[in-house]
Design goal:
The complex is a heterodimer. Chain A contains 9 helices and no strands. Chain A is mainly α. Chain A is elongated and about 115 Å long. By secondary structure, chain B is an alpha/beta fold. Helices cover 51% and strands 12% of the residues of chain B. In chain B, strands 1, 2, 3, 4, 5, 6, 7, 8 and 9 form a 9-stranded mixed β-sheet that branches. In chain B, helix 2 crosses helix 5, helix 11 crosses helix 13 and helix 14 runs parallel beside helix 17. Chain B is globular and about 65 Å long. The two termini of chain B are 41 Å apart. Classes of the chains: A mainly alpha, B alpha/beta. At the A-B interface, helix 2 and helix 5 of A face helix 6, helix 9, helix 11 and helix 15 of B.
């Protein structure tokens, strides 16, 4: 019996050693891939950083307001952020490839899920970036147009527009990555609907006269003599 | 792109029917039915009276009018002048109307007229605005004679205008063009002007016609180009220029056409303005009493209110454009009550230069930079109106020259900012 136990134990030990022998080269292979991946990710991020610096990406980000946002939250510059993003995405990709080399079958579906998810994540980042660009551009255009047309509260209009665009962009980005898309969509619809209803009530109650004047100016120009419109004032003659 | 390629086949056919000419008078139009008829009649009268032996053609380049402008031009062109005056034609005076594509844009109209003039090998070309309702036949003679007979390259107008007309020209374009390029012509953004065939061909060769300056503010670009190319300039007093009662006053568009073009020119001519350019000779014939002093009904209070409102509301935009000291000074200015408000020439010049540098560096969208200057200009216009409320024509001229000196004085600031030293 004792001999049988020893034989079983030695067989088990052999199997463990064999398994370990099979696992060790894979593990070393994984480590090698992680290290090489880290180096490649570092080189990639350095290349991206150089390209972005050459393309004056930080200046472009100033236009989008992204740089301002990052400064306020004490984060690095947009170039640095994107370079680091590339580094981590590339390195995590290599780590996952490296892990897939190991004989751990339950990890494999998760790894392939990540690679399906990765393009969506990158697309979502781009959506947010260009969305911020659009939000800043359109809100500034609204602000300038409002000020030059002497519209009351142009900054409020501009900020409202900005928040709406950012909200829309974020919901779009979430939709893209498939995270809480329904919740975000419902939240967006509720906010947008509430805002529109609020504006409609506010204009209906407070802007009755303004709307009347606007419609008269817009559609009944002939019946509304110029003298009455400008209260006997001359227009500024710039040229 | 060859100049002829912008001309339609039908238009080229009409031009070929006319054959070579000596004089082209171009009339760029867009929805100008109210005034274009009388302008074309005056042009015809001028050509027949003062250039009866020369082969002439009137070319109307229309931007797609929907009010029958082109029909009115054609009707005016075939009306019989000899029935109402003692003018009798020695030659057939042709008149062609064409509609250009990608309009309305005055620059495209000018490009069309330039290309047509080049094709017809005209010796001189005049451009008249359909808004020039006070145009007399003599204007055609005054515009064309220096080119046609005295060998001038570019003839610019001088009008008798109300002292508060052309505020953007007097407070920005003229002082800045004079300080930076030595271009001291009184109407650098002319409505009526003329140029020689040689200069016309050189304009056509420039790579500007696909750019923004080739669409809007093109007349100002032409003036600056000719001044910097050391062309022979002349100024000619034409007469009174009054504004139409219902003339639209789009200050933002005017700012785009003038400040936008000027800011753009800084990059192209940086070697000129960095040095100390000599005044470009532009002798003026009959330029006395160029300002009339009639009563004005401009609402100064509204200008002041719009300035203070603009400074307050556009604070985040100005943060990107202006240097902190200038921004602070503007904010302090916006706090002042109307009776103490004065936007001094030096501060205005500095503001404009900082905007020009921001435009060059594109710190935000360039069009937004130009738009942001509008409320500040209203503040400057308020000060100009206040300073010159009771001023005589001579005093107004003096004040404008003082402003030119302020632009000159602030030039080192522009150079420092341009080079990134500030």
């Amino acid at each position: 019996m004792w001999q049988g136990f020893i034989a079983e134990l030695s067989r088990t030990m052999d199997e463990i050693l064999r398994s370990f022998g099979r696992f060790l080269p894979r593990f070393l292979e994984m480590l090698l891939l992680v290290v090489v991946g880290g180096i490649i990710a570092f080189v990639l991020s350095a290349i991206v950083r150089s390209i972005l610096r050459l393309a004056r990406f930080d200046k472009l980000s100033e236009h989008t307001g992204a740089a301002h946002l990052l400064r306020r939250t004490a984060l690095p510059s947009p170039t640095e952020m994107l370079a680091r993003f590339v580094f981590w995405v590339a390195w995590i990709g290599f780590i996952l490839v490296a892990v897939s080399v190991l004989p751990v079958p339950w990890l494999w579906p998760h790894i392939s899920d990540f690679f399906v998810f990765l393009p969506r994540l990158i697309a979502a980042v781009f959506i947010v970036f260009f969305g911020l660009l659009g939000a800043t551009f359109f809100s500034r255009a609204a602000l300038l147009g409002g000020v030059n047309a002497d519209v009351p509260s142009p900054r409020l209009i501009s900020q409202t527009l900005r928040v709406m665009i950012i909200f829309f962009v974020i919901s779009l980005a979430f939709e893209f990555v498939g995270v809480g898309s329904r919740t975000v969509l419902i939240a967006f619809s509720l906010t947008f609907g509430a805002l529109m209803l609020g504006l409609a009530i506010a204009f209906g109650l407070g802007g009755k006269e303004l709307a009347k004047k606007y419609l008269e100016r817009r559609f009944a120009r002939e019946q509304y003599p110029r003298e009455a419109r400008h209260e006997h004032e001359d227009e500024l003659s710039p040229l | 792109m060859p100049a002829e390629s912008i001309l339609s086949d039908d238009f080229i056919r009409e031009l070929m029917n006319v054959g070579d000419v000596d004089i082209v008078v171009g009339v760029p139009t867009y929805n100008a039915a109210r005034t274009v008829g009388q302008v074309v009649q005056a042009v015809r009268a001028g050509l027949l009276k003062y250039f009866p032996r020369e082969r002439s053609v009137i070319i109307n380049a229309d931007g797609g009018s929907r009010d029958g402008t082109q029909d009115l031009v054609r009707a005016a062109a075939i009306s019989d002048l000899s029935a109402t005056s003692d003018i009798h034609a020695l030659r057939t005076l042709h008149s062609i109307s064409t509609q250009y594509e990608n309009g309305p844009a005055n620059g495209v109209a000018l490009h069309t007229i330039l290309a047509a003039s080049d094709l017809l090998q005209a010796r001189a070309c005049a451009i008249v605005s359909p808004e020039s309702t006070t145009l007399e036949p003599e204007w055609i003679e005054r515009l064309l004679r220096p080119v046609f007979r005295d060998g001038k390259d570019l003839v610019l107008p001088v009008y008798r205008r109300h002292k508060f007309d052309g505020l953007l020209i007097r407070n920005l374009v003229y002082p800045m063009a004079k300080a930076l390029y030595g271009c001291s012509v009184r109407e650098p953004y002319p409505a009526d002007f003329s140029f020689s065939a040689e200069l016309g061909s050189r304009f056509l060769e420039q790579d500007v016609w696909n750019q923004e300056q080739g669409r809007y503010g093109t007349e100002l670009w032409m003036t600056l180009w000719a001044a910097n190319a050391k062309c022979k300039l002349a100024q000619m007093f034409l007469g009174a220029k009054t504004r139409r009662e219902d003339a639209p006053s789009d200050l933002v568009a005017a700012m785009r056409e003038t400040a936008g073009t000027l800011f753009c020119s800084l990059e192209a001519y940086s070697s000129v303005w960095r040095s100390s350019p000599q005044l470009v000779p532009a002798p003026c014939s009959g330029c006395e009493a160029a300002i009339s002093e009639e009563h004005s009904r401009l609402n100064r209070k509204r200008l002041h209110d719009m300035f203070t409102f603009g400074v307050k509301e556009l604070d985040p935009v100005f943060l990107s454009i202006l240097t902190p000291p200038t921004h602070e000074r503007l904010k302090e200015l916006a706090e002042l009550p109307e009776d103490k408000f004065a936007y001094a020439g030096e501060l205005w010049a500095r503001t404009v230069y900082e905007f020009a540098v921001a435009y060059q560096k594109a710190v935000i969208g360039r069009d937004h930079i130009v738009q942001a200057l509008v409320p500040l200009f209203r503040g400057r216009a308020y000060t100009f109106l206040t300073e010159n409320r009771d001023a005589s024509a001579e005093m107004v001229e003096q004040n404008i020259e003082i402003l030119c000196q302020a632009f000159e004085k602030e030039k080192p600031t522009l150079i420092d900012l341009w080079d990134g030293r500030k």
